[in-house]
Amino acid sequence: MPRRYLTVWSGLSFPYAARLTIDSILLADPTAQVEIHVLGEHPMSSHFADLTDLADHRISVHDIDLDELFGSLRLISGTDCRAVFNAIPEHALSARSNILRYALLYRRGGVYVDFDVLVLRPLHDLANGGAFLGAERVWAYDEARVEGRWKLRMTAGTVGWALSWFAKRLDSKWFGGALKLTKRLRRLDTLWTRQQPNNAIIGAPAHSPFIIEVLRQCALADPTVRYALGPTLVSAVARQHPHLVRVLPEATLYPVAPGESYRFFEDRHLQLSDETVAIHYVNSNHRKLLHELQPDDARLETRSELFWTLARSVAAGNQSPAHKLDAR
After folding, report:
1. Which among 128, 165, 261, 278 could disulfide-bond with 282, CB atoms 3.0 to 4.6 Å apart, if both were Cys?
2. Would you give the DSSP letter of residue 43?
3. Model pTM greater than 0.85?
């Protein structure tokens, strides 16, 4: 696998949080190359301009040519990936980026990273010569909910999950995690949560059999259903073809469940284990905060929670002093 990081961007905005993702990669893996693949016009943002104007040979920006990219996939996937892409509404940027990341991984090889990830250690070291994903802990019935497969028998687990989430949310917001309810409720949470691979971080060599199978199954998914081309798809392929991909434990890439990403910003007692090599703080859960974040934001200097500490370290070029024992 080439020591290459792939990212995908579309839209004219490019917030400071996105810049932190690139900076964290460069700090964590000094020998790696970073490619920013842009769909459409380049962002009209000083943060993007700073990256490209000041970039050395380690950063490159590439315009995505859809005809060229998808045309080269038809033979290997047996499906028309361009037709699937065209069926996705233009405003569904994350859904569109799902197919683009698979296509780029097939063509280029490397590690794909979303723009709401902070990298703490080199991700290529996880590859072991093949494809890899990370597992995260999710609400067991979320997939059924978005697909309209709700059943009455799911009610008890849903109520339990909601009460547990609400208790942990209050602990984080009002007590800074001092009550440690996340740790106390961990055993109960296994009753209404499950592990599922996520696609915010994917490693694969070029022409990976795992990525080929993902591309083939894209045509079977409904692009209008949330997650259908994302975690739902890669988890299905990983389950059907476990020999094609390595699924890493939660602590490695997703130490905090996506529904509890508020903990990165509020829980003063949240620490990471030595297994953790990246965090995914889920931009869609904190869109307003991250859109407004700027380098001179006072919280970057005064707040001690994990996101603020890591962001401050990345901005200063000093990677990850908050990386300690005792995860979650």
Report:
1. 261
2. P
3. yes
